[in-house]
Specification:
It contains seven helices and no strands. By secondary structure, it is mainly alpha-helical. The protein has a single domain, classed as Cytochrome c/b562 (Four Helix Bundle (Hemerythrin (Met), subunit A), Up-down Bundle). Helix 1 packs parallel to helix 7, helix 4 packs antiparallel against helix 6 and helix 6 packs antiparallel against helix 7.
Length: 153
């Protein structure tokens, strides 16, 4: 696959991801956040930045950067559950109460994100542009799906 075609695919995926994850500017979203709510909001902001760096790396054919950023996302997936203790939904949290009411579903969504991040790492390590693009798209879908179910707009 040509570098130009890979770049076009990556751009399309990024636009889709950006539109699906659009949120208020961090300065507004985090205003007044403290404790675990602020920590998880900061982690989600960092994961959004990592996703943007993956998009850029895909457009440049930089699989080493894709792997590095996806490893960060995998690490976040593996600690995310601990950032949602009971009674941690005070404003300005954007978490829906469904997280705690449907805990097993939420943990399943985290596992889907974990699986997708791991697949992205594995596919990037194989340096197959087609499968890396697909893995990135699947990871973005896991984010969007979780946000739709468990995050206030």
């Amino acid at each position: 696959m040509s570098k130009l075609k890979l770049k076009a695919i990556a751009h399309g995926l990024f636009v889709t991801l950006t539109l699906s994850l659009s949120s208020p500017p961090a300065a507004l979203a985090h205003k007044g956040a403290t404790g675990i709510v602020k920590e998880r909001m900061d982690k989600f902001k960092a994961s959004e930045k990592a996703t943007k760096r993956i998009k850029k790396a895909l457009s440049q054919g930089d699989t080493a950067m894709v792997v590095a950023e996806a490893k960060f996302l995998l690490s976040w997936a593996r600690e995310m559950e601990s950032f949602f203790p009971k009674s941690s939904n005070q404003p300005p949290s954007e978490a829906k109460d469904e997280i705690w009411l449907q805990w097993d579903d939420f943990v399943g969504a985290i596992q889907s994100f974990d699986n997708a991040a791991q697949a992205l790492i594995d596919d990037a390590a194989r340096q197959d542009p087609r499968t890396v693009s697909w893995a990135f798209k699947e990871m973005a879908r896991s984010c969007k799906s979780c946000h739709q179910q468990f995050r206030e707009d």
